[in-house]
Design goal:
The chain is of the alpha+beta class. Among the domains are: 143 residues, no CATH class; 111 residues, no CATH class; 64 residues, no CATH class. Helix content is 48%, strand content 14%. The protein has a three-stranded antiparallel sheet, with helices on one face. The two termini are 65 Å apart. The N terminus is likely disordered.
């Protein structure tokens, strides 16, 4: 790329000589100056703004508003509107916290650079180059980049809320003596701020450099950088600030050693503590010194020295944080690994036990007897009756073959539970008959969203009994449900479950399909209080936009008391309400009070517990725990 030819095409011809404030006039330009035309913005027809506004309105604003309001209605319908608003305000707090300083830093630096550069050009050429168009370009570019920056910051709302609502663990780490809450709640947020500032300064530096270069306050002549005093001072100050923020990253890296995976144990090992920790201290000080030396450009142009300084800092960082630790680990630690790593191995074992709640486990020696007599078995019939004979997989297939009854019903999984039946505790296996609309033959809109709205009933059998034909001995079965034990199921309808989610409209003029009865069907009406009322035109319009389904707006089946049920997958719904928890893969049903209630296990967790090795398992059913190094089964949710 020939930059000289580019500037000749823009400005007609280039200057013959540029000096650093030592030319024939005060601005540093010699007498032979280029003739510089006024810079003008091209005119854009108003029709394009109107069309663009209409396009954005119908593709971004209205659909976004619909999703926002319908989400709010959903949270309100279950009494969790405070959760919705806290998530919403946290995002926008971060947006404004980020956008204001980002815009001011971008705009003030680029505006100053461009304005000073044009002033210098005017003084040198004797012309009056207008700044108006350039000013608005800078405002627009700075605003757009600030918006991008702020939108990116909104994604860290979880880290922000954890920082704002942190609680101490009451335990400290063995290296720095800080409460473990610092590593879980504080350090991630401080690291984000440091990374954010570093990126902000990089973009600011690039924009400032381009501004000075385009106004020819900064240029290259061979390998020599020629700059005006203002450009030199400005870029040096920004570079110095960048180095300080960079140095802060080295300081924070000290604490990250407690999560080092490179040694024989997870967490800081011998090399980390004795080599890397001092190295990060040195690099922090070196970055501060480099930032101070860069300010010497205020007094004398030292671009080459600045480049050498930054290069030396990078080299020092590589040598001290990668090369030297690698040598020490290979030739000093490995030959004496157990002796040198033993204190850190003890830390690792101790903190891993604490993280997973294993530090309070008691070991009890049990010596089993060799024989069990018939008399002992007869005396312990409750235990014998609860010895499981049925396996999950064949039992699930049996359920589907014998109890699905219609193709649009399905059983997702088999669950084990205990119920007090006939005066004793019995272990049972059960499953719920959920609706699978993908298997519905006539998939009309009315069938999919008004008529087939719910599954129906439960299948249950004891774990240890088999019928004479080798089939399960059912405690509960069929449609409508028939029970041979004292379990009431007054409301067998299943509107929420574990299968694929789809929205349905209830309390409409169309009676809901309940269950088949011979050649006819039994119908019912929704009796619950869940879902969002959708009787008004406004809400129908919003849900039309949300689901992109115009039938909602134009159907004549809705009444003032009609409701829409969505987010009906239990696990996914709970993740919306409590996204900071990990939810177990299995949501299991319980029959209680004549109703089917779904129970979901949830876990408080972190991957920021010092010295605790994260879980890594190839088991796909446990993959949602991968990376976790602290966990407690603290929550059980019911729907």
């Amino acid at each position: 790329m020939d930059l000289k030819k580019i500037f000749e095409s823009l400005y007609g011809n280039t200057r013959k000589e540029w000096t650093d404030g030592s030319g024939d006039n005060e601005s540093g330009w010699d007498d032979e100056r280029p003739k510089i035309p006024n810079i003008r913005m091209p005119k854009i027809s108003k029709i394009w703004f109107i069309l663009g506004g209409i396009f954005i309105l119908f593709t971004v604003i209205l659909p976004g508003l619909a999703v926002f309001l319908t989400d709010l209605y959903w949270f309100e319908s279950y009494g969790f509107e405070s959760v919705f608003w806290r998530r919403f305000t946290a995002r926008w707090e971060l947006f404004f916290i980020a956008i204001v300083p980002a815009f001011l830093i971008y705009w003030s630096n680029w505006n100053s650079a461009w304005k000073n550069g044009l002033r210098l050009m005017n003084d040198a050429s004797g012309q009056d180059v207008k700044f108006t168009a350039s000013k608005w370009v800078i405002i627009v570019v700075a605003g757009l980049l600030a918006v991008v920056n702020a939108l990116n910051a909104m994604g860290s709302w979880g880290t922000f809320l954890e920082f704002m609502n942190q609680t101490p663990f009451g335990e400290s780490d063995p290296l720095f003596g800080l409460d473990l809450g610092f590593y879980v709640f504080t350090l991630p947020f401080i690291k984000y701020i440091q990374t954010w500032l570093q990126g902000l300064l990089v973009v600011t530096l690039l924009g400032t450099f381009v501004s000075y270069f385009m106004t020819r306050s900064l240029s290259l002549e061979g390998t020599k950088i020629i700059s005006s005093p203002r450009a030199r001072l400005h870029l040096s100050l920004l570079g110095s600030l960048f180095l300080l923020v960079w140095g802060a990253g080295y300081w924070l890296a000290r604490y990250e050693l407690l999560f080092s995976p490179t040694g024989v144990v997870f967490g800081a090992g011998y090399t980390d503590v004795n080599i890397l920790l001092p190295a990060f201290n040195i690099l922090t000080v070196a970055a501060v010194i480099a930032a101070a030396l860069l300010l010497l450009n205020f007094y004398k142009p030292m671009w080459k020295m600045s480049a050498v300084l930054i290069g030396a800092l990078l080299l020092l960082g590589w040598v001290s944080s990668s090369f030297v630790p690698g040598l020490v680990q290979q030739y000093r630690v490995k030959p004496n690994e157990y002796e040198m790593e033993k204190p850190f191995l003890d830390y690792h074992l101790d903190y891993t036990r604490r993280a997973f709640g294993l530090n309070n486990v008691r070991t009890i020696a049990i010596t089993p007897e060799n024989e069990v007599t018939p008399e002992e078995l007869l005396a312990d019939q409750e235990t014998v009756k609860n010895i499981r004979l049925w396996d999950y997989s064949p039992l699930l297939r049996t359920y589907k073959q014998l109890q699905a009854i219609r193709t649009y019903y399905d059983f997702e999984d088999v669950y084990i539970d205990r119920y007090k039946l006939n005066g004793g505790n019995r272990q049972v296996m059960l499953s719920v008959r959920e609706l699978d609309l993908s298997k519905l033959q006539n998939q009309t809109w009315v069938n999919m969203h008004l008529e087939f709205t719910h599954g129906y009933g439960v299948v249950m059998n004891p774990v240890n009994e088999v019928s004479p034909g080798g089939l399960p001995f059912f405690f509960m079965k069929d449609l409508p449900p028939r029970s041979t034990v004292d379990i009431r199921l007054d409301r067998p309808q299943i509107y929420y479950g574990s299968m694929k989610d789809f929205y349905v409209l209830v309390n409409t003029d169309v009676k809901e399909f309940d269950y088949p009865m011979g050649d006819s069907n039994v119908r019912s009406t929704y009796e619950g209080e869940g879902g969002v009322e959708i009787g008004s035109f406004w809400k129908r319009l919003l849900f039309t936009l949300r689901f992109r389904d115009t039938e909602i707006l134009f159907t004549g089946a809705l009444r003032p008391e009609s409701r829409v049920l969505y987010n009906r997958n239990v696990r996914e719904a709970l993740k919306e309400i409590a996204p900071f928890l990990i939810f177990d893969q299995d949501t299991y049903p319980v029959i209680f009070g004549g109703r089917i209630i779904w129970v979901q296990d949830a876990f408080t967790w972190t991957n920021r517990y010092p010295y605790s090795k994260p879980v890594m398992t190839p088991d796909p059913t446990l993959s949602h725990f991968n990376g976790v190094n602290y966990i407690r089964n603290s929550v059980k949710a019911t729907v």
